Amino acid sequence: MKDKAVFLDRDGVINEIIYHKEMGIIDSPFTVDQFKLLPDVHKAINKFHKLGYEVIIVSNQPGLAKDNFTLATFEKITIKMRKELKKKGAEIDAEYYCFHHPYGKIKKYTQICNCRKPKPGLLRKAAKDHNVDLSKSWMIGDGITDIQAGQSAGCKTVLIGRMKCDLCKLMEDEQIKPDYIAPNLYKASLIIEKE
Ligand SMILES: [Mg+2]
Ligand SMILES: [Zn+2]
């Protein structure tokens, strides 16, 4: 029998999005210090495990392609994430990242790939590696591309956002509809528990 999984976007779901004043952009953390866990993420992860789901991160990190941070920094951020979750008694089962961007600065990562969400490549690879039935799985993210990737892979989806969200109009126009909207990951875990 196949397993089921909850696929999680990282930035805006597990950790805070950062406002980079000097660049005037809202983006991923570029430094270890900027990485801050959101409240109750550990509780959500533990609930998913209790419900029998594997918990797998699937995240676009084009900051590598754009030269916003190095692979070494990215790895330090990942270690901090795991450590902080572990301190609170939670563990992620696996992590899948896309470092690419079609218009990057770093040649190695500048490409059109099959893993960058909204494509379902990361979810498909994770499902294959972990023997996961995508139709019994969920994708949770705070962006339209997360919902698109989840739907393309055949998962149910939860959008993390406010009910009165800016994305809603856009999603309506594109006919992308998450199955649920939740204000944070813990609330999303309660929705999945009830399903
Ligand atoms: Mg995000
Ligand atoms: Zn990629």
Q: Top keywords for this entry?
A:
single chain; 195 residues; alpha/beta; 6-stranded parallel beta sheet; 8 strands; 33% helix; binds magnesium ion; binds zinc ion
Written account of the structure:
It contains six helices and eight strands, in the order E-E-E-H-E-H-E-H-E-H-E-H-E-H. The protein has a six-stranded parallel beta sheet with strand order 5-4-1-6-7-8, with helices on both faces. It has a two-stranded antiparallel ribbon with strand order 2-3. The mean pLDDT is about 95. It binds magnesium ion and zinc ion (ZN). Magnesium ion (MG) binds next to loops.
List the helices and strands and how they pair.
Blueprint: E1 4-8, E2 18-20, E3 25-27, H1 41-50, E4 53-60, H2 71-87, E5 94-98, H3 121-129, E6 138-141, H4 144-153, E7 156-160, H5 166-174, E8 180-182, H6 185-194
Helix pairs in contact: 1-6
| Mean pLDDT reading | 95
Question: Strand pairing plus helix content: what structural class?
Answer: alpha/beta
Low-confidence stretches: none
Listed once per kind, the bound small molecules are: magnesium ion, zinc ion
Strand content: 15-25%
Overall morphology? globular
The tally of helices reads 6
Element order: H for helix, E for strand: EEEHEHEHEHEHEH
Distance between the termini: 21 Å
- In total, how many beta strands? 8
Approximately how much helix is present in the residues?
A: 25-40%
The main pleated sheet reads as:
6 strands, parallel
What's the alpha carbon Rg, rounded to whole Å?
Answer: 16 Å
Task: Give me the side-by-side strand order of the main sheet.
Answer: 5-4-1-6-7-8
